Amino acid sequence: MAGPPRPSQDADGHVATITSEVNKAKLAQQGTTAAGTTPEEFRTLITTEINTWKETAERAGLEPQ
Fold it and tell me: What is the pTM of this model?
């Protein structure tokens, strides 16, 4: 698709907010890190996780409730 490159954050600055030094420190205290991604990367991550856990549940013989 032609056009200008997409910004690395949305108009409200959510990526900049989550990756601020203050929030990085708070997340580090909880044992996690912040990472900004594109909507497409996030969609791929979620789809992969859903498929992985669906297959795991099926192998374990678990049925949806």
Answer: 0.51
